[in-house]
Amino acid sequence: MAENRSIDVSFRGSGGTALAGTLQLPAGADGRRVPAVLLVQGSGPTDRDGNQPPALITDLLQQIAGTLAGFGIASLRYDKRGMHANAASLPRDPEALAEFVRWRHFVEDAAAAFRALKSRPEIDPARAGLFGHSEGGLIGLAMAARPGGDAVPAALVLAATPGRPLGVVLREQLERLGRLQGAPDAILQPLLDQNDQIVARLEATGELMPDIAPGLRALYPPYLRLFWQAAAALDPVALVAGYGGPVLVLAGGEDSQVSPDRDALALGAALARRSLPVNAYAIGIVPGVSHNLKPVSRPGDPGFAGPVAEAVTTVLHGWFTGLGWASPSLQVAGQQGRRSPSSLTFR
């Protein structure tokens, strides 16, 4: 039986920065063009596979790539600028570093990766989409909204993607973490208030406050001030409403970082208001699943380990089958020969 193939690839991102990635091709792709999906990871120093080694290993995007290959869909995933295989390009000068990690460069890198994917002889450029996890979904939305329209995906999957401004989402994350750690209101509330002030100042001026509390300093290193200026100003609802293609909003019911109700449903409401000849979208909120789309076994389980939840695989297969991109039979580990349900329950 033919097997999936992984190919090391490289391309030039924003400003000519060299980027390395992995192209995964499904079995039987030789001699025919197949649909493809660009995979964009979440925030921080996350590598092409969805990991921040050695502390955080999820293999999320590596697993999604394998899942898509089982559907007959190719994928491209890549390391971020200045990180992992691309570490040699990271500037040492503080001002050069701040410029290097501007938000727009990450968006332009994704656009370059998308163009590189579509240009491959194995890929059907008319069936090229994007799967963005968490911050990666925002990058996908911003990429699709770029002037010129040279990197607009034919379809989007927004997985665990914020539907509200990042400052609001971050405040909720900080408050939740503080409550879990037992921080009293007298300590927690001033921290949350200062976070609001930091985000507002960054968005308005691109400058940090002079005296940031120790509990917030790791979030706002000086070199990220220009990144935050643009990222804090994003309006996910406006971005998704302006996109004209099919969208799957995918969320874990136990996501502790991005709210399935306040974020996924906000994106869904914006999609429902689109005025299109065919308004194709779905919102899949999967019970018992984490931010990283893994099963949550008990309260407090972060859901980092193990394979992607089977229910997530089923939702993805139903979505791509509906687009005409996937084979009707599942071909992923543990699910060979099963057919995707003819209808899926979306919330």
TrEMBL record:
GO molecular function terms attached to this record: carboxylic ester hydrolase activity; serine-type endopeptidase activity
Gene3D superfamilies documented for this protein: alpha/beta hydrolase
One BP annotation, GO: proteolysis
One protein family per Pfam: Hydrolase_4
Keywords tagged on the record: Hydrolase
Serine aminopeptidase S33 domain location: 61-165
PANTHER family: ESTERASE ESTD
Name of protein: Alpha/beta hydrolase
Source organism of the structure: Phreatobacter stygius
Lineage summary: Bacteria, Pseudomonadati, Pseudomonadota, Alphaproteobacteria, Hyphomicrobiales
